[in-house]
Amino acid sequence: MQSTSISPEVLDIFRSASTASLCTQLYKRGIRNNFVQGVGPLSKKHPRMVGQAFTLRYIPAREDLNTLEVFKDPVHPQRHAVETIPTGHVLVMDCRQNSDAASAGSILAKRLEVRGCAGIVTDGGLRDADTIADLSMPSFCAKPSAPTNLTLHQAIDINVPIGCGGAPVFPGDLIVGDGDGVVVVPLHLVDELAEVLPQMESFEAYVYERVSQGDSIIGLYPPNEENRKKYEASLR
Fold it and tell me: Which domains can be identified in the chain, with CATH numbers?
């Protein structure tokens, strides 16, 4: 499936936006099932992640087809995904919300980092979790899990629509991660949200400062006319 590239300028806007703000903006547009449930950052040192989705789909493993020998196949879907994901994209893996086995380990994660991948998201587990957490590339998973993916997961297809943590993910969608988790932004809404996010983040920073100084949230969040004028004056 072909995807449309997002400009570097737009990506920079999303790097300054929280997943909370994105969820609110998507909610306003009728989209509620966009947060990847049960997934968090492996490391608090690198929680920020922004990039377009490149997907890998796993199905339940069938023992006679999922032996260690499959990794010798140069086009094995897991290996092929790691070697073909475009620079700046996020590898999003559908493990059917089963984290009792890993969906990748440190060697594959390091290869993704070296190739310029923007991050990893999986609703399964990650093995060698401490090593992956030390990479400069952010990774989000359900939990650390040592068993090889072959135990439970059979890699079956790449760059197709998937579900990850209950959220639909289409190739090319924008994936944004922070300390709260991961949000999937439908590609067709990216430019529209980029127009409103800077103002939303600016206003919430203003409100946070007012509240820090002892102001009540009543009439401030959301703002009445008086507080809206005060905010506009602060911008000038």
Answer: 8-189 (3.50.30.40), 192-235 (no CATH)
Burial of 226 (0-12, 13-18, 19+ CB in 10 A): exposed
Structure token pair of residue 101: 């086995």
Please write the tens of the pLDDT for every residue from 92-136: 999 999 999 999 999 999 999 999 999 999 999 999 999 999 999
Strand partners, 126: 144
Residue 2 has pLDDT above 70, yes or no: no
